[in-house]
Write a structure and sequence with these properties.
- The chain is built from seven helices and eleven strands.
- By secondary structure, it is an alpha/beta fold.
- Strands 1, 2, 3, 4, 5, 6, 8, 9 and 11 form a nine-stranded mixed β-sheet that branches. The protein has a two-stranded antiparallel ribbon with strand order 7-10.
Length: 231
């Protein structure tokens, strides 16, 4: 598949969503407050077979954000993100979960880190859990020191994603498909950590079928020395 880009935007924000329109609305609201120019990034909401009303939330933000709604039958978040990659128009793709609350400087700090570090193929944000309860039945992406590669909040160069072949769609649940992608992308170059690019992710009931401790052990097996971004 040829790589094509559109100079209208600098960044494509790709997020899968399956139901929970109330969380999506909070997420889009946080993106509307970014200090990165709103005219310079597009948002691709990739609806993975939702049975709840996602469209009305997206319509609410038209005219405020450059937002597009893409739909597919339910195939899982990996396939939904691949849909966003294919429909994106920019050299930088920022993956965000649809329930993340983005700090005002999240996008600008990730983009600046990639601009200042030309050898990087990705820039990883700091994920901080909020709300809910911490325990064996709860899960949230947590990244305070880098090398976790959660697609909850990470930026990649689009050409590196195409070279890596995108996400493996045999991962049907939101568990480890992101680190599997990172294994392939790291063959193209380093993924740096940007500690002051902050995303807040709610604790949620673990539905992956994979205990967080097991997932963490998989992360540790491929975690390289973490490269930290310039501030």
């Amino acid at each position: 598949m040829p790589i094509t880009t559109d100079n209208t935007f600098q960044v494509s924000v790709v997020m899968p969503v399956h139901n929970h329109p109330e969380l999506l609305e909070k997420h889009l609201s946080s993106l509307s407050s970014q200090d990165f120019s709103l005219k310079d990034f597009e948002i691709l909401v990739c609806d993975d077979g939702s049975t709840e009303d996602i469209q009305s939330v997206v319509e609410k933000f038209r005219g405020i954000l450059n937002v597009r709604l893409l739909r597919q039958q339910q195939k899982g978040p990996a396939a939904a993100r691949n849909l966003g990659i294919k429909k994106s128009t920019t050299p930088i793709i920022v993956f965000l979960d649809s329930d993340v609350l983005a700090d005002q400087t999240l996008i600008s700090r990730l983009v600046t880190a990639l601009d200042q570090n030309e050898e990087w193929v990705g820039a990883e944000a700091c994920n901080k859990p909020i709300g809910g309860d911490e325990g064996p039945l709860w899960d949230s992406p947590v990244c305070h020191d880098g090398g976790r590669y959660h697609t909850a909040a990470i930026a990649y160069r689009r050409d590196a994603l195409f070279k890596a072949g995108g996400l493996d769609e045999t991962f049907k649940m939101p568990a480890c498909e992101d680190v599997d992608l990172a294994v392939q992308v790291l063959k193209e170059g380093p993924i740096g950590f940007v500690p002051d690019a902050i995303a807040k992710h709610p604790w949620r009931r673990d539905q992956s079928g994979i205990h967080p401790i097991i997932a963490t052990k998989k992360y540790e097996t491929i975690r390289p020395g973490v490269i930290r971004g310039k501030r």
